[in-house]
Write a structure and sequence with these properties.
Layout lengths: L4 H6 L4 E6 L4 E7 L6 E5 L13 H6 L3 E5 L18 H14 L5 E6 L1 H12 L4 E7 L10 H9 L5 H4 L5 H7 L2 H11 L2 H4 L28 E3 L2 E4 L1 H14 L2 H7 L2 H8 L11 E6 L3 H5 L3 H8 L3 E7 L6 H4 L1 H14 L1
Parallel strand pairs: 3-4, 3-5, 5-6, 6-9, 9-10
Antiparallel strand pairs: 1-2, 2-4, 7-8
Helix pairs in contact: 3-4, 8-10
């Protein structure tokens, strides 16, 4: 159910602080009563805690304590300089240590994009800390072998961005050459407006000589429109651009470089460790769901307490930003059921 407008108007404070976790420091946004049930929001790539700007006050008004960090490698948080520092053990460990630092025993963990992978793995690696888990955009998946081997088997010598990201150096140079353009192109291309009427290409270009942004041209003028109106403004893009000018892309891209190591370290852990309530929210035009059309049914059959999925019409990959009212209604309904 939507938050009460009168109560929402009373929730004006989203606070910001840096939380020292020992190995890293995370910049954290918070809203709501510190004694209320906790909801931990995990952003994806290339995003920030700012991605949850439409959720922080609404969830707080509905009676939750809301916590949204810039995760390791992003924004104003620490940026370790070793690829191995961005493994899923480290990323989920950050969340567990953050809950410790904030005196939170359990939280509902909500993750979008790469944050969804972190949320699913938080539920598998630290189940005692997770009251329930909601994946956004990216369904839960169990890899039967090393992920990059499976991707190479599918794509051969054709370009696939995750394989391109395995290199250290070329992706950073490309993405950092014009940070604002990189973000504007990426955020538009995977949005509902960017995907509407477009099918995935029948054949991808060759890996050799192709970059992440190859052939994308210039980004359209801002603001970008979604089903509920403008969702990305000049101000929003400025927040993202300033953050990535500071952090660079080594940390965020290194999350991808740990996919195989993550599988080797934790692939043996059974999926039924995710025994708490789980649910999913996605966009009907999200390219992730186009590439994984069986994802929702797979979760129904593999997750012990899967409570269902909401797929939002006209919405692309940036689910909670493109249609915040519809997203918030879906999430609040799930939180109430948990």
């Amino acid at each position: 159910m939507p938050a009460d407008p009168a109560r929402l108007r009373a929730v004006t404070d989203v606070t910001q602080r840096d939380v020292d976790l020992g190995e890293v420091t995370l910049r954290v946004l918070e809203a709501g009563d510190p004694g209320a049930p906790a909801v931990l929001l995990c952003h994806g790539f290339p995003e920030l805690a700012h991605s949850w700007r439409h959720q922080l006050p609404v969830l707080a008004a509905a009676g939750y304590r809301v916590i949204a960090p810039d995760q390791r490698g992003y924004g104003a948080s620490s940026v370790p300089d070793q690829v191995e520092a961005y493994g899923i053990g480290e990323l989920t460990g950050d969340l567990a240590h953050l809950l410790d630092a904030l005196s939170v025993q359990q939280a509902v963990v909500v993750g979008h994009d790469w944050g969804a992978l972190v949320a699913w793995e938080m539920a598998r690696l630290h189940p005692e800390r997770v009251r329930a888990v909601v994946g956004v955009s990216v369904p839960h998946v169990t890899w039967p072998a090393r992920p990059t081997e499976l991707m190479r088997a599918v794509h051969g010598d054709r370009f696939f961005y995750i394989l391109y990201f395995q290199q250290v150096g070329p992706p950073e140079r490309e993405l950092e050459a014009d940070v604002r353009r990189t973000l504007a192109l990426t955020l538009h291309a995977a949005s509902g407006a960017g995907r509407a009427g477009r099918d995935l290409p029948a054949e991808l270009p060759p890996m050799e000589g192709t970059g992440f942004l190859s052939g994308w041209g210039d980004p359209p003028a801002l603001p970008y429109a979604g089903p509920e109106g403008p969702w990305l403004t000049e101000e929003d893009l400025g927040v993202y651009a300033a953050a990535f000018e500071r952090s660079g892309f080594f940390g965020p891209v290194s999350w991808y470089r740990n996919l195989d190591a993550n599988h080797e370290r934790f692939g043996h852990l059974p999926v039924d460790r995710i025994s708490m309530p789980s649910a999913f929210i996605g966009g009907a035009l999200d390219p992730v769901l186009v590439m994984d059309p069986g994802g929702v049914e797979r979760m129904r059959s593999t997750l012990p307490d899967f409570r269902g999925a909401v797929v939002l019409d006209g919405v692309g990959h940036w689910t909670q930003q493109e249609a915040p009212a519809a997203f918030n209604e879906a999430l609040l309904g799930m939180l109430a059921s948990f």
